[in-house]
Amino acid sequence: MPKTRNGPLAHFLLLRNMKQAPARLIALVEPVVTGLGYEFVSMEMLGQGRQSIIRVYIDAEKGILVDDCSKVSHQVSGVLDVEDPIRGKYTLEVSSPGVDRPLFTLAHFERFVGSEIKVELRQATAEGQKKLRGDLLKVENETIHLHVQDEEFEIPFALINKARLVVDF
Predict the structure, then answer these.
(1) Burial class (CB in 10 A: 0-12, 13-18, 19+), 163
(2) Best CA proximity match to 90, nearest among 42, 64, 56
(3) Does residue 88 share a domain with residue 22?
């Protein structure tokens, strides 16, 4: 459930889309999530004009319900109110990563080897492609190996802007 909060006027440095929030913010939130019995998938900060969005992704073996998001949101909000690590206005969102879950870390890519994924790169490949969709073959030395049609692409993790699982219904 979204929760809006106002703080001092200075702005927090925002990271690019689909990249994790700053380590000090994760260090505050992750123990709250895991302490409630949920998997902390990741956390991101996105800017929207004068309003930031802090998005926390949680998961559990049984799946995530709205009540789970509400419970985590309430507890995380309390910690953020006390610690006050963010200046300026922000909205806190807590959600499941969904069936087309975003992949944030190398560990996420490793977990879903064999799955079909979509990847958006920060810069185009030598072939001029910036968006790729294919089967995740392996993760090796911070490089993602992706099978696209009849080609294998080796993509350095640092060049990935966004990545998500592909789900066919």
Answers:
(1) buried
(2) 56
(3) yes
CATH of the domain at 119: 2.30.30.100
C-alpha span between 162 and 120 (Å, rounded): 5
Model confidence, pTM: 0.74
> Could you tell me if residue 101 is inside a domain?
no
Identify whether the C-beta of residue 89 lies closer than 8 Å to the C-beta of residue 47. no
For residue range 28-47, what is the model confidence (pLDDT) as tens digits?
Answer: 999 999 999 999 999 988 87
Torsion sign (Cα): 68, 69, 70, 75: positive
- The boundaries of the domain holding residue 90 are 3-95
